[in-house]
Amino acid sequence: MGIAALLAAATLVTMTPHQKAALLVVSGPRADNGVGGVLVQRWDLEAPRPRGAIVYVDQEGGDIRAFRQLPPLKAAAQFTNAEDAFAAGLATARALRRAGVDVDLAPVLDLPDGPLGSRQFRSPLFGIAFARGLAAGGAGACAKHFPGLGTLPVSTDERPHVRGVLRDRDVAPYREVVEAGVPCVMVGHGIYPSLGPRRASLEPSAYGLLRSLGFDGVAITDSLNVVGSADPRVGAVDAVRAGADLVLFTSGARASRAVRALVPLARRGELDEHVVRVLRFRALLRR
User: Tell me, what DSSP letter sits at residue 43?
Assistant: First the structure.
């Protein structure tokens, strides 16, 4: 057992049910203290950040940059080789760490035929190189949107229910990035009949597929705010029971309700496995 795992196990036994529940929630900056992570957005760059929280940001490149003055300036689709993608990841990591950010919610590993346009790399190998660059610069990478948006007709940000066909080649980049040591994977909201009737972020078989690739890091949902008007308490509980280690909300109010909904699960010991993974992740980022 490594040092991070030992520290996580030792910390777990000291935590209250509320602390365990809060650790599994990522929120916008204006949330209750104790949340496990905070997502810094363009309009909230100067907002106070909860003490001890892991700080996340969407800094993919091009138009998808919370910090407009920081790299990568190019959109993912503009990279033409792995060397440049690695260099961009390295520069991005160094800039984000100076800005107090721990994790970049990137790279997008959806294939070029997917619905995200310039957010998709021409080759997933370029995305994996970007992830390696982030790691070399001391930031965490979070590959997304597992298991791949390739055949979805539109982004899941545009419609509440988007169905697609899951192909082996959509999953292949995740196998490679897991082998490269990526510590975090975001599970998307696409619906794949071969996995089950629910969005991947709420579907146990999606998390089972991810773990079958040998992934032992942190699985985070895409923002549960886009799931529509669904009660955040239900979304959080369903996602964690499906296999999510972290549930993401851009709304602080929804995040607070999610924390309260997860406390009963913590009391029954249902969160411990997820808490240990998040504690290991935090230790990795703070080395």
Answer: G
